[in-house]
Design a protein that fits this description.
11 helices; about 40% helix; about 15% strand
Length: about 290
């Protein structure tokens, strides 16, 4: 871990990254890609030491809306348990009457359940959870340093019981690893039982580019001997890697989500995530 003094905290679309880098160890992580210009070791977490001051300044001058985090780095990395930066931002977001949404794989989000409930009662809070495999043994191989899928399902159910809406990211689906009907149907079963609002899926596959490709291939060599060569032969240096089962699996995905009134169009889901309840506008603090 190392600290930096940052000049900004929110993007123009109200996206926020409290940390850069991650220790979850997911073998497919796109955030390792060189395109993002990270000039430190990925597991050496960059922490914005002036994050709270910057956020308070931005919330004072921006129109109340949804604040999002987790697109680049899961905000609930193990370090959050010690630093509690997300918790402190949630307190500020609640005080200033904004909404909140995040993408995570971690059950550490339950440490902030009371704050999420308060925000959701006042404005809106949505939790986005990534699910890739229904097999916990496989989960511990491809996402080794974060809670298992079964624990994430428990989290989704707890959120449901507390009336906090949820969205699932069904990705990535790795060719010849988790791209099978049993896996997709099992994940969809969980989503239906948890009454998720929507499931984001751009297709059955993953993305690979310089930086994350090399790391991914090294992990294939460790855990799936011979599979790297198959990827190299079939996909070369392609950025978008599509499962050979994509068509059939997407048909299952669209059919079952539609039958169960679960949003499956990414644009509609993002519209929902960005919608701020106008009736909930509060007088902001000075």
């Amino acid at each position: 871990m190392h600290y930096v003094t940052s000049k900004s905290i929110l993007s123009k679309n109200n996206g926020m990254n409290l940390y850069r880098g991650c220790t979850h160890g997911c073998i497919y992580c796109d955030s390792r890609s060189e395109i993002y210009g990270m000039n430190h070791r990925f597991e050496d977490i960059e922490v914005k030491e002036n994050y709270l001051e910057l956020l308070k300044k931005e919330l004072k001058k921006r129109q109340q809306s949804m604040i999002g985090t987790g697109a680049m780095t899961d905000p609930y990395i193990p370090l959050e348990k010690q630093l509690k930066h997300v918790k402190k931002t949630l307190e500020l977001i609640y005080d200033y009457g904004f909404g909140f949404t995040c993408i995570t794989k971690s059950d550490l989000i339950l440490n902030d359940l009371d704050l999420l409930k308060k925000i959701n009662e006042k404005t809106k809070a949505v939790v986005q959870m990534t699910l890739t495999t229904a097999d916990d043994d496989l989960c511990q191989i491809i996402e080794p340093n974060v809670c298992t899928t079964q624990r994430r399902i428990e989290v989704l159910n707890i959120l449901k019981e507390n009336n906090i809406p949820t969205v699932v990211w069904l990705c990535p689906i790795l060719p010849y690893i988790n791209d099978n009907e049993d896996n997709i149907n099992s994940i969809l079963d969980y989503c239906i039982d948890c009454n998720v609002k929507g499931i984001i899926c751009y297709g059955m596959g993953l993305t690979l580019r310089k930086g994350n490709r090399e790391y991914f291939y090294s992990k294939l060599d460790e855990n799936f001997p011979g599979l790297k060569e198959k990827y190299m032969k079939e996909y070369g240096d392609s950025y978008s890697i599509q499962s050979p089962n994509n068509k059939k699996l997407m048909e299952i995905f669209k059919k079952r989500t539609s039958e169960n009134d679960i949003l499956n169009n990414p644009n509609e889901i993002f519209q929902y995530l960005h919608e701020f309840p106008q009736k909930s506008y509060q007088t902001k603090l000075i």
